[in-house]
Design a protein that fits this description.
By secondary structure, this protein is of the alpha+beta class. Helices cover 18% and strands 33% of the residues. A hairpin with a 4-residue loop joins strand 23 and strand 24. This is Ig-like domain-containing protein.
């Protein structure tokens, strides 16, 4: 205790003298600290007394120290940069040459036992400043950012309700703001109407997975003392599941459960009309109960009743909504079908391309097999020479006039009939 007081006194003195800076950073942030010396000077950086780097100014030689900070830090010039801050990086950073001290406080905000809580359960909101648990913080509560009365780093919420759900803000020294979101959920159900002889689902579910682990639960109907309902059981080998042997009146899924705790009541009668209670138990002694009302009416004449009021087989739907490796089964089926379709498309494209290549190769082969033309196959065109001959030929002599029209021509002396 005395040592803590001394360190706090030295820190306060350091800040007052102006040679110490205090940085409040989130987990994962980066911090930059300046030594304040010439770039050619030797620089020695230390973290809580352990060497980080020793840099020779003239040669630029850098030697790593024993501190874990050296594995991720960098030193451009006289600046020390520490990325991806963790809670263990909180502490005092010292530059020997300038005598400057820098204090880094890594702040983390979270909810215990988790951000999704059950109604009436307890919760802790943390805004932890590593290395400085006594510094006060300002909490702002939902929905309007109203200031919370307590200014501690850890506040306790008792029997949470929907009023506490929403964003909680933690302000550290008015410099850093961290937000945690709190979700409060409860069991959900609806009233059910059925006709005589129908198989009917009694609904009971959580809207989403919660931080608390389900350890047990049951269905109960005081007006049906002889009806055997299954019990919720959570074991290491089978996980959360229904356990029951009598399926004569109540049917249930035999697979692993997550947030759906429905059961099916077979061939309901007027005697089944009444209130049914679903109870789910969680770690820490928290349990939630919800009531649903069943109303059974006479089946209309001439109308055949369905096996299930929701119009779908409960076993099939339960199987499709079952979680496998964190996702619903129907999502895996959709991904598988899409993958098969993609593979078929790729195969078809490959076959078409291969066929086109074969056709192109065949065309090239046929072209290469054609016989080349010989000299005698070419056309000898002498059109130009003939045009030259015709152009140089002399014009014919004109015909004598007496020879132009034999009918008008006069008979000569040698003319004989």
């Amino acid at each position: 205790m005395a040592i803590c007081k001394i360190l706090f006194f030295l820190l306060a003195l350091c800040v007052w003298c102006g040679k110490c800076e205090v940085f409040y950073k989130r987990v994962g942030d980066e911090v930059s600290m300046k030594c304040g010396v010439d770039s050619n000077s030797d620089i020695d950086w230390k973290f809580n007394g352990e060497s980080i780097f020793s840099i020779t100014g003239k040669s630029g030689t850098r030697r790593k120290g024993s501190s874990h900070i050296a594995e991720k830090a960098s030193t451009p010039g006289d600046i020390l940069k520490v990325p991806r801050l963790e809670t263990r990086d909180s502490g005092n950073y010292f530059c020997k040459q300038s005598g400057k001290h820098h204090t880094v406080r890594v702040v983390s905000a979270f909810v215990k036992p988790g951000p999704v809580l059950l109604q009436s359960s307890n919760a802790e909101l943390h805004c932890d400043i590593t290395g400085d648990p006594n510094t006060e913080v300002q909490w702002q509560r939902p929905p309007n950012g109203e200031e919370y009365k307590e200014k501690k780093q850890v506040i306790h919420l008792k029997s949470v309700t929907s009023e506490e759900a929403g964003q909680w803000t933690c302000l550290v020294e008015k410099k850093l703001k961290l937000i945690v979101t709190l979700t409060v959920v409860g069991l959900q159900t609806t009233a059910v109407n059925a006709s005589k002889g129908d198989n009917i689902e009694l609904p009971c579910s959580l809207p989403q997975s919660v931080s608390q682990r389900v350890v047990g639960g049951r269905w109960k109907a005081d007006h049906l003392p002889k009806v055997s309902f299954p019990n919720l059981t959570n074991t290491a080998g089978e996980g959360l599941h229904w356990h029951g042997n009598d399926l004569s009146k109540v049917n249930f899924t035999t697979g692993q459960l997550s947030t759906n705790f429905d059961v099916t009541l077979k061939k309901v009668q007027s005697s089944d009309d009444g209130t049914f209670v679903c109870t789910v138990e969680f770690d820490g002694g928290v349990s939630l109960s919800v009531e649903t009302t069943l109303r059974v009416v006479d089946k209309p004449s001439g109308v055949k009743g369905s096996n299930n009021r929701k119009g779908k087989p409960p076993a099939v739907m339960e199987s499709l909504t079952k979680e496998v490796y964190g996702l619903k089964l129907w999502i895996w089926i959709a991904v598988g079908a899409s993958s098969v379709a993609l593979i078929v498309l790729i195969v078809v494209i490959g076959v078409v391309q291969r066929r086109n290549k074969r056709m192109k190769k065949r065309v090239r082969t046929l072209r290469s097999m054609r016989q080349p033309l010989t000299d005698k196959d070419y056309c000898q065109c002498d059109r130009a020479e003939k045009e030259v001959e015709f152009g140089e030929q002399a014009r014919p002599l004109p015909v004598p006039r007496q020879h132009r029209n034999p009918r008008t021509r006069t008979a000569g002396p040698n003319h004989t009939n």
